[in-house]
Design goal:
Blueprint (H helix, E strand, L loop, with lengths): L1 H5 L2 H11 L3 H22 L15 E11 L2 E10 L7 H22 L4 H11 L7 H9 L2 H8 L6 E16 L2 E13 L5 E8 L5 H13 L4 E7 L3 H10 L4 E4 L1 H9 L4 H15 L4 H14 L5 H9 L15 H4 L3 H18 L1 E2 L2 H21 L27
Parallel strand pairs: 3-6, 3-8, 6-7
Antiparallel strand pairs: 1-2, 3-4, 4-5
Helix pairs in contact: 5-6, 7-16, 8-9, 11-12, 12-13
């Protein structure tokens, strides 16, 4: 007797666990089963061996098999049934909180670019008894669709200062073929200087019709007026933009313009020409920028006439930003807000996925990530300062600097 008492409960349990690896699992199963029996007794009103009809509220109606994932493994339980009403147990609800936490982590892994196959392996290592297959993970993610749809259809303000639009391409499987599909993204800067994702759509190609549908959806959500639109020189985009938001000034992204110009010279000339182009876009006003551009065009007239032609014919559309507040110019003359912040983030995370099985899964991934970014923007620091001194003013003409292209 003394020998038994000298043993700790922990030691006794350890001995039993060494003998039978399922001991703890069976013990948990037995305890859970007993708890459910007691819950049914309370709901019925009398114990199973009692026949007191004055206290009886209902009748027992056998059992129903129930699979239950726990930390000790998957348990096959016999869930009690009641004939007159549904049996209620707090037990499953408490464990479902842990399960919901796990599902939330699975959703976060998908947002971070972890593939469904990788998620399956991670969950399997956390608990070998949890059987989340690739298809199960996909179904879990699909439960976020109503939340994503609500975010996409949220009403917008009727006025935004600036509108940035660009497209990002992903590989998607469509009709047993892998194609590169554009995701159209538009971001607005409101009157307080905060960024807001206004619209996200996926299409089969960048075209006038796809952009028209994209901008119409944004307009249907409440946007009416825009001071300036910023994008690349895609003809369909600009045409659709001007149709939905007529009489709105447009800024062609100077980064796209510079890349187009530099593509017309050999590699050894690119660095020098790039420095010349920077002098144009660092000018304090339109007159000075145009003067420098004429000098550069004259310099390249005989050697690279396409460069000269682009500077003479297309430069005007890249200088719209010079008519706006000097504090905003560097941020509104390119689409780097989309390319440098969002596209880079989405592209890096999507490399793990590789090829999306369909357009719906691609949009689900993009929207889940953009929802996080949008929330950070709305609650974080302003992107631009909007003060009285920041209002659009005509800059005084400065002395024309010497063009260093001699």
């Amino acid at each position: 007797m003394t020998q038994l008492n000298s043993k700790s409960i922990k030691a006794i349990l350890q001995e039993e666990l060494n003998k039978d690896g399922d001991f703890l699992k069976q013990m948990v199963k037995h305890i859970i089963q007993q708890i459910m029996e007691e819950e049914r007794d309370t709901q019925v009103g009398v114990l199973s061996h009692k026949r007191d009809n004055t206290k009886r509220k209902a009748n027992r109606n056998g059992y129903k098999p129930r699979s239950f994932n726990t930390r000790v493994g998957n348990l096959l339980l016999a869930k009690p049934q009641i004939r007159e009403f549904a049996f209620q147990t707090q037990l499953f609800e408490n464990y479902q909180r842990s399960e919901k936490a796990l599902l939330a982590n699975i959703c976060q892994m998908i947002k971070d670019g972890v593939s469904t196959n990788r998620v399956k392996k991670i969950v399997g290592k956390l608990s070998p008894d949890l059987t989340y297959s690739k298809s199960t993970v996909s179904r879990i993610i699909q439960e976020l669709d109503p939340q994503i749809k609500k975010w996409q259809q949220a009403q917008l303000q009727d006025y935004y200062l600036y509108l940035f639009t660009d497209a990002l391409y992903f590989f998607v499987r469509v009709n047993h073929q892998v194609i590169s599909c554009p995701v159209l993204i538009t971001i607005g800067i409101d009157k307080n200087g905060h960024r807001k994702i206004l619209g996200v759509d996926i299409a089969f190609e960048e075209s006038y019709q796809s952009y028209l549908n994209h901008f119409n959806k944004i307009k249907d959500k409440g946007l009416k007026y825009v001071d300036l639109t910023i994008s690349d020189d895609h003809k369909g985009l600009i045409k659709a933009q001007q149709e939905v938001f007529p009489n709105t000034a447009h800024q062609r992204c100077i980064c796209h313009f510079m890349r187009n110009v530099l593509s017309n010279v050999p590699y050894k000339e690119k660095t020098k020409l790039a420095e010349y182009l920077k002098q144009i876009f660092n000018s304090p006003n339109r007159q000075m920028a145009a003067t420098i551009a004429k000098m550069i065009a004259k310099k390249y007239q005989s050697s690279y006439h396409k460069v000269s032609g682009m500077l003479q014919e297309e430069l005007e559309f890249t200088l719209t930003y010079l008519g706006y507040s000097k504090h905003h110019r560097r941020k509104i003359r390119t689409t780097n807000l989309i390319e440098g912040v969002i596209n880079k983030d989405l592209k890096q995370r999507s490399k793990v996925v590789g090829i999306f099985p369909n357009q719906e899964s691609c949009m689900r991934y993009v929207c889940m990530r953009l929802m996080e970014i949008d929330e950070q923007w709305q609650t974080g620091r302003r992107y631009m300062k909007i003060n009285k001194e920041d209002q659009f003013t005509q800059e005084d003409d400065l002395k024309l600097p010497r063009f260093t292209g001699q």
